[in-house]
Amino acid sequence: MILWGLVRFPMMNDRELSDRISIRMSTLNAIKNKMKRTGIIFDRIVPSIEVMDYELLTVSWTPLTRPIREPTDRKFLTNLFSGFPNAYSVMVFSDTLFSLSLYKNYSQYRVAEQGIRSALRTKDLLSIEEPHSSIYPLSISRLNKNFDYTSVLERAFDIEPVEDGPSEGISSQEGAKNKIFHLTNKERVILKGILKAPDMPDNKIASLLDTTRQAVARHKKELLDLGVIRKTRVLDYGQLGFNILCLVEAHYDPLETDSADYPDTRPLHLPSFFSVYGMNETVSLSLFQDFEQFAVSRERYSLLMKSHFRIRGEPSISLFSPADTFTIKHQDYLPLVERFLSSGT
What we know:
The protein is of the alpha+beta class. The chain has helices at 2-8, 14-21, 25-37, 71-82, 106-122, 150-156, 173-180, 185-196, 202-209, 213-226, 291-308, 334-341; strands spanning 41-47, 56-63, 87-93, 96-103, 132-137, 142-146, 229-235, 244-254, 272-277, 281-288, 309-320, 325-329. The protein has four domains: 1-38; 50-138 and 325-341, 2-Layer Sandwich (Alpha-Beta Plaits), CATH 3.30.70; 142-159 and 237-323, 2-Layer Sandwich (Alpha-Beta Plaits), CATH 3.30.70; 171-226. The strands form three sheets. Strands 5-2-4-3-12 form a five-stranded antiparallel sheet. The chain has a five-stranded antiparallel sheet with strand order 6-9-10-8-11. A two-stranded antiparallel sheet has the order 1-7.
């Protein structure tokens, strides 16, 4: 329950969360600190993608010629993606390279994609199987989950989903956009400092930036309240008994209804932590403890999708072992924010 509460309500302080989940604050503190020390959970401060001027979200997965287990291959891929700042999350699932990227236009995406494929081919890592890339224009797509593990924990621990309440203190997206386009120089420095060291306390960030803890805390609170940035909590799911990582891609046509509706997976306990819906396709990542849980969820997902869309063919489903995952980047938004801030805002 404590782990779920920390993930579900990342903006709450310890006292608020203690009251919300009805657990003594001393118990909550002790367990939270232990989970952080062991690396099961850690905090992230991430920007709101919608308030920057990136037009495209791309989801790519590329079959490789071999599993990435050797240090030389891992070093090569780490160095490769350090040169592609638009990719904010990059992971290898055994022999499949998975990445999420943001671009301002299609031409920028094509240049980066060709550069990555060329480098993989030079290293004899590019499989003869065709790489997959799904392109989602953010103005007409819905990024439903972006590393939100709430549903994963609800499914694993049989916790009933909690309806979203009002977002206290969060302004409209227009307010967030207005703020990020009119940041002072000091606010820009503090924003980049927060994103560079999201797990660091305010006093240490202040020391690095040669400013005061009060200034960091004040600007962070304002940016959080406006929705320019948000706090999230990330899991090391390899330590939590999950044995199946599932990647699903489905193509569809909207049903002939008056509204373009996207399915809500939470009431069905479908344990996805990433999902995006476009006009005609969707991609998601999910975690399961065993194959029986996966089979039940697959049936529920199929029925849910058919109630909202006319499915084209069979969804593509790939299963991986979480233990065989190598993370190259995890929600590394700093280069994207730096590019955005230097582009004349």
